[in-house]
Amino acid sequence: MADMEASVRDLVDRDRDCTEKARAQMDLRRKINLLIGEWKAAGGGDVLPNVRDRVRLRATKTVSIPLRVIARR
Questions:
Q1: Angle between helices 2-13 and 19-41 (to 10 degrees)
Q2: How far apart are the first and last CA of the chain?
Q3: Do 21 and 7 touch, CB atoms closer than 8 A?
Q4: CA 60 to each of CA 2, 52, 66: distance values in angstroms, whole numbers, following the listed order
Q5: What pTM value is reported for the model?
Q6: d(CA 19, CA 64)
Q7: Sequence-ordered strand ranges (E) for 1-73
Q8: CA 21, 24, 30, 35: dihedral to nearest 10 degrees?
Q9: What pLDDT score does 18 carry?
Q10: 48, 36 contact by CB (below 8 A)
């Protein structure tokens, strides 16, 4: 989805026809909205993360080094 948006922005910035890519992007958004609607109808009630939440979670991810690796150093 992000790749599609970047592609459309690039075409617009270069003053090119982005009709097909923009339609494909809108189709993807429709499909995502349908999937979210189906998920909610099936009982899904959790709050879905937005981009800001996902980036924040990714930045706080830590890598743990097993003690065996530290002892060898």
A1: 150
A2: 43
A3: yes
A4: 22, 13, 19
A5: 0.56
A6: 47
A7: none
A8: -120
A9: 92
A10: yes
- The Cα–Cα gap between 36 and 29 comes to 11
49: left (phi over 0), alpha (psi -120 to 50) or beta: beta
Poorest-pLDDT segment among 2-6, 43-47, 54-58: 54-58
Average pLDDT over residues 30-46: 90
Which pair of tokens denotes residue 30? 């429709």
Q: Tokens 């009982």: give the residue.
A: 43
Q: Which two tokens stand for residue 17?
A: 């026809």
Which residues 6+ apart lie within 8 Å of 70 measured at CB? none
Token pair, residue 55, equals 């980036």
Residue linked to tokens 């459309």: 8
Tokens coding 50: 């937005």
